[in-house]
Write a structure and sequence with these properties.
Elements: E1 19-24, E2 27-32, E3 35-40, E4 48-51, E5 57-62, E6 66-68, H1 70-78, E7 82-86, E8 93-95, H2 105-115, H3 117-132, H4 141-163, H5 182-204, H6 221-228, H7 231-246, H8 253-268, H9 270-281
Parallel strand pairs: 1-5, 2-6, 5-7
Antiparallel strand pairs: 2-3, 3-4, 7-8
Helix pairs in contact: 2-3, 3-4, 4-7, 5-6, 5-7, 5-8, 5-9, 7-8
């Protein structure tokens, strides 16, 4: 016999056995007859209603035009299902209520690696190896940042040439981000979109955003670390494609970047790839098998 309208209080499927993310937009997440539903077109003559298997998914992402009832939040909290409000196709991450998954393995592993100076630099070197395509012998973060910065400058130039964009160098004024030229504005907007995707990936694994291995000062340092792993393959691809498009159509660069980011996120399954990359850089496959954590990448 079910206990109460929310079902068995102890019925909770571990997140490791659940499906991944469920994307919903333009509707109301609500509870009907004790079950979670997503109602679209409530005010129309032909509304549609889908029952949501909330116990079998790890995270529900609510896109534009969506609302959620208090009853739905109670149901999600009871079963440990995450929920976040995001932009179209994950190009923004606005908020995530504290409905965390019932796991701590990723967070504990991250804290373990971050808290040991030798392991921390090993993870940072692994990240640089993924970004640069080779393992550098250097162990000083400032040196690694300098090498990476030099290579990124060349990559900006190559990407601009590939897309037929006039490139005058990277220029970013935090106080006035719109004061730069069109390609730089596109990079700024694309970076914001990719960081939103990284935030969703970090949230879905209950990892710890402040504990970055390369970035240090931000409360979203680990999010920035993961976003940077996709800078060459995703961020700059989005930015320069949108910048080129801006020369052909009459539209704002922000809107063009959002549309391009949404298309790339869907086609390349970017958020899923980020989740896999988080597990890779934290070497989650070594947890519990006694493998040495101090090895170089």
């Amino acid at each position: 016999m079910l206990k109460g309208r929310l079902g068995l209080e102890t019925a909770r499927i571990p997140h490791a056995d659940r499906h991944g993310l469920l994307w919903l937009s333009r509707g109301e997440l609500c509870v009907i007859d004790g079950c979670l539903h997503f109602l679209r077109g409530r005010d129309s003559l032909t509304p549609t209603m889908d029952q949501i298997p909330h116990q079998a998914v790890s995270m529900i992402l609510l896109g534009p035009g969506s609302s959620v009832t208090h009853d739905a939040l109670r149901l999600l909290a009871r079963h440990g299902t995450l929920m976040a409000a995001v932009g179209e196709d994950g190009v923004r991450s606005y908020t995530a209520p504290p409905l965390l998954p019932d796991r701590s393995d990723v967070a504990r592993r991250q804290a373990e690696l971050w808290g040991n100076p030798r392991r921390r630099i090993s993870v940072a070197r692994h990240m640089y190896a993924l970004r640069l395509g080779e393992v550098l012998p250097h162990r000083d973060l400032d040196t690694l940042r300098g090498i990476e910065g030099s290579r990124v400058k060349n990559f900006y130039k190559l990407m601009a040439e590939k897309h037929g964009i006039s490139w005058k160098g990277r220029n970013y004024d935090r106080a006035n981000p719109n004061a730069t030229d069109l390609p730089n504005q596109a990079i700024n907007h694309a970076a914001t979109a990719v960081q939103a995707a990284a935030a969703i990936a970090v949230q879905s694994l209950a990892a710890l955003p402040p504990l970055g291995f390369i970035h240090e000062d931000s409360g979203q340092s680990f999010v920035l670390d993961i976003a940077d792993l996709f800078r060459d393959t995703v961020t700059l691809q989005i930015a320069f494609t949108a910048a080129r498009r801006a020369e052909e159509v009459d539209d704002t660069i922000d809107r063009l970047v959002r549309r391009e980011a949404a298309a790339v996120f869907r086609k390349q399954q970017v958020i899923g790839a980020m989740i896999d990359r988080i597990k890779q850089v934290l070497r989650m496959d070594e947890v519990g098998n006694g493998a040495g954590d101090d090895r170089d990448p």
